[in-house]
Amino acid sequence: MKHENFQTHASAVQVQLGSWSELRDQACAIRFEVFVEEQQVPIAEELDAMDAQCLHALAFSPQGDAVATGRLLPDGHIGRMAVKLSERKKGVGAAVLHALIQAAQDRGFKEVVLGAQLHAKGFYLKQGFVEFGEVFLDANIEHVMMKKTLIALAG
Predict the structure, then answer these.
(1) Measured distance CA(134)–CA(140) in Å, rounded
(2) Rounded mean pLDDT of 45-66?
(3) What is the 3-state secondary structure (H, E, C) of the chain?
(4) What angle do CA 31, 97, 104 make, to 5 degrees?
(5) CA 113 to CA 149: how far, in whole Å?
(6) pLDDT band at 153, cuts 50/70/90?
(7) With bands split at pLDDT 50, 70 and 90, how would you rate the model's confidence at 47?
(8) String of b and e for 99-131 (b: at least 16 CB within 10 Å)?
(9) pTM above 0.85, yes or no
(10) Which residues are CB-neighbours of 9 under 8 A, at least 6 positions away?
């Protein structure tokens, strides 16, 4: 497992990267709270077979609580970004996103792509993503595709 520290507005947040088998319990708890309970996404749509193939990220508060998660799919898509309600607007989601972007860059991806819920579009714009395509429904929630070009590493 890889640990990275990112400075947020309030304090240091630790982001842990790992496999689904390593991070499943804590990632599932956050995703269930955000997607299933808060957003009413059916559990059958929230969990999928791709989890076992993805690199997962968990952000931990200074108190050691898992407060945010996301995943990087083998094709460079970022997904299942979820931040507990009490931790939003504190830089925690950005820390998870930055860790996943760095992991994608380390794997040689030229860009990352994600489907952003419309209410989160501004967050991703601030992180350097650009919108493309039409608005679409996923789990009965409006989304838009967004992408970010990664800086090529000299080598």
Answers:
(1) 15
(2) 94
(3) CEEEEEECCCCEEEEEEECHHHHHHHHHHHHHHHHHHHCCCCHHHHCCHHHHHCEEEEEECCCCCEEEEEEECCCCEEEEEEECHHHCCCCHHHHHHHHHHHHHHHCCCCEEEEEEEHHHHHHHHHCCCEEEEEEEEECCEEEEEEEEECCCCCC
(4) 110
(5) 9
(6) low
(7) confident
(8) bbbbbbbeeebeebbbbbbeebbebbeeeebee
(9) yes
(10) 90, 91
Residue with tokens 């040689």: 108
Q: What six digits make up the tokens of 144?
A: 């838009």
d(CA 76, CA 112): 5
What does the pLDDT read at residue 11? 56
User: What backbone torsions phi and psi does residue 138 show, to the nearest 5 degrees?
Assistant: -135, 125
Residue 66: exposure state from Cβ atoms within 10 A (0-12, 13-18, ≥19) = middle
Q: What is the mean pLDDT of residues 112-130?
A: 97
Least confident of 4-13, 116-125, 145-154: 4-13
Rounded distance, CA 151 to CA 78, Å? 17
